[in-house]
Specification:
Length: 178
Amino acid sequence: MREGGKLTNTSMRILLKAFVLSAITAVAWAQATPDCSGMWKRDNDRCQPPRSGDVTLRIEHRDLEFTVETTISRALASPRHAVQKYTTDGKVSISTGADGDEFHTSVVWKDASLVFVIEEHEDGRILLSKETWAVIEDGETLEKICERPNSETQTLFFRRIPVSRSDSKSGFLKARDK
């Protein structure tokens, strides 16, 4: 009988250790992967270099799936629209951008940032770049640092737009009408 008690105690300790390790891992994962889901509007005045035109990102992030719907509006041009679907496990996804170019992109988490390695196919040329996305300023700003091999760097800022979870369109959150 005593041997059975030791076995039960050992099993309970192993189970308890596994539970604690799982809880610590879940907390660490939650801290390392900020919530990017929602609507974001580019803040042209903060961008370096400054930008013009309206760019809105609608992001849906669930587990490894990361979808970005981009809408670009300029004064005299028709709005452009694209939906890109990625996974955050480093697998290459192929998509078409709002400008019609083909993108081969892999995405991974590095600490609390998403790192995009991008190969853009444009007019017979291949343009390489890397983007690092981070949610900053208490979750209210998305910072996007774009780097090219020629040392050209751009920093874009997007501010979070309030959304209503009761409104949805194609599985995405919808901006609140004001």
